User: What shape does this take?
Amino acid sequence: MIFTVVCLLALILVVNVIATGNQKLEKSLMLQKNIIDMHVHVAGVGAGDSGCYVSAELRKNWRYKTYLRSFNVTEKDLLSHGDAIVFKRVSERIDESKSIKAAVVLALDGVVDKNGELDLSRTETYVPNEFVAIETAKYSNLLYGASVNPYRHDALQRLESAARDGAVLIKWLPAIQHIDPSDEQLIPFYKKLKELDLILLTHAGGERSFTTANALLGDPERLRLPLSLGVKVVAAHAATTGKSEGEDNMERLLRMFPEYPTLYADISSLTQANKLRYLPRLLKYNISDRLVYGTDFPLINTPLVSAWYYPFRLSLRQMIQISLVKNPWDRDVLLKSALTVPTEVFLQWEDLSEKVA
Ligand SMILES: [Zn+2]
Assistant: This one.
């Protein structure tokens, strides 16, 4: 038995050395501290009058405890210091990072009822714009990412106040917020986004971070409407996972790039254990001028992501070095750059958004 295990380990080691050669870690990205992470989540339970909400169902789910741990807070911390503590912890860790200059922290609007009012009974997580605007303004390394459900009766005014408060983008999670991006009723919303020069960061592809989701709404083909109106659209996670009409969502997204010059995709979550096959495929497409760096924090700080999942693409030395890095952002930058994500992608955000100082 022991002999078999030793033989197996030796075989993995030999294959590892042959497959990965003597690659060196990309160190230059680390030292310049000029990367912006465009995809960072926060959450709260409503403590300190934050207005945040987590459904009782999600609160019972294993995901809730994992998320708190990865934010480096406990439920007791939230209750005694208020939900704002999450921003403080995120800001401190970005400050400590050798690679990341700032992060866009995302609000998350809820589900809307027939009258265009927030419907908390159908919402799993709600992070209000006002809370994110106030908290991000306290830290020079946090940027404000607003979220507006376009079916709210005052959606256009909400876009205007988000822009006034310094929002750099609007985030959607269509499968959770029940938004159909191809709905022609949304045309005034799209025109307002364009007028205010706000980027639409919208989740595309499958969705597993919540307990329920409407997969049909993650079909990248539904983004043709905002793209045809000239809205800058970033397809979160490059539409990885899931199929629509029997075809891989990512493939459906990729063929749209030549057609729409304002289409981008972020590379957040692409190092997760359930998505290992996607990043090499995406990088083959030669669209690095349309890929944007994001982490989907806190998920990069959970067992879903590890350098040890890449024994055939990284050397043993790389896997050890990356795993030993404490800062979750630095670990993510090192992992993605070792997986040959071009430098251009890490620095794309500033080109995409002229609003970032
Ligand atoms: Zn996300």
The chain has a mean pLDDT of 89. Residues 39, 41, 236, 296 surround zinc ion (CB under 6 Å).
